[in-house]
User: Which sequence fits this backbone?
């Protein structure tokens, strides 16, 4: 079974430029997550989708970050304009069950991440 | 507020020694509990998880963790560490009644001396 695919693996941009990251979750997984992991810190949830709807984006800086999950499969995360503090690894994860499903396995499967450096 | 605390930022052990990584959470009810491992340049891999039942859970790579409700803790242990265990370890908590939201601790970086 293929895992969670992310691209690009690495991206270097200057501040105020824009960048987009792509994620292809495991086939059939209803829930998709984007996490930001700053060096030396644990991953922080940015946004969570169930199918193509947003269930939690409370920590997404909406003035510069946007995300979408078209057709409930692939997802893109965009940053525009980027700031120095956006330098981080952006992790995508997916899980099989959706919100409200009676039995939760709770396991998230993570991609290898996209490392962003903002100069 | 819901939170996850990993008190130790760095831990160094000798190969073959035992290991215990600490994790505490703050929540009014019993959450779902996880330990993930992250090797350099790699994604996060699930080591083990606890939902209910037996409070001692076994995971992959010889790891185990014990849930202690009275201490709001879920510490990770391994009786004999191998050099390949050097990595960063994250405790994570999924709070019930929500949207399967997974919150991570800050992580503990493990170094293994030969």
Assistant:
């Amino acid at each position: 079974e293929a895992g969670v695919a992310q691209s690009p693996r690495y991206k270097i941009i200057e501040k105020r430029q824009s960048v987009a990251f792509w994620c292809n979750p495991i086939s059939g997984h209803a829930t998709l997550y984007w996490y930001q992991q700053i060096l030396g810190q644990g991953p922080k949830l940015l946004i969570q989708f169930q199918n193509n709807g947003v269930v939690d984006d409370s920590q997404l800086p909406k003035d510069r970050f946007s995300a979408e999950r078209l057709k409930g499969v692939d997802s893109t995360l965009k940053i525009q304009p980027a700031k120095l503090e956006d330098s981080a690894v952006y992790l995508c994860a997916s899980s099989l069950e959706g919100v409200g499903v009676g039995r939760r396995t709770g396991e998230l499967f993570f991609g290898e991440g996209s490392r962003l450096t903002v100069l | 507020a819901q939170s996850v605390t990993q008190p130790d930022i760095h831990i160094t052990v000798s190969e073959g020694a035992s290991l215990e990584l600490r994790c505490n959470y703050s929540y009014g009810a019993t959450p779902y509990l996880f330990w993930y491992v992250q090797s350099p340049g790699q994604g996060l891999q699930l080591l083990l998880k606890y939902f209910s039942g037996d409070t001692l859970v076994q995971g992959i790579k010889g790891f185990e963790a014990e849930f202690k409700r009275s201490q709001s803790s879920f510490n990770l242990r391994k009786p004999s560490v191998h050099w390949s265990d050097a990595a960063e370890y994250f405790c994570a908590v999924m709070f019930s009644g929500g949207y399967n939201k997974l919150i991570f601790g800050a992580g503990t970086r493990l170094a293994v001396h030969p």
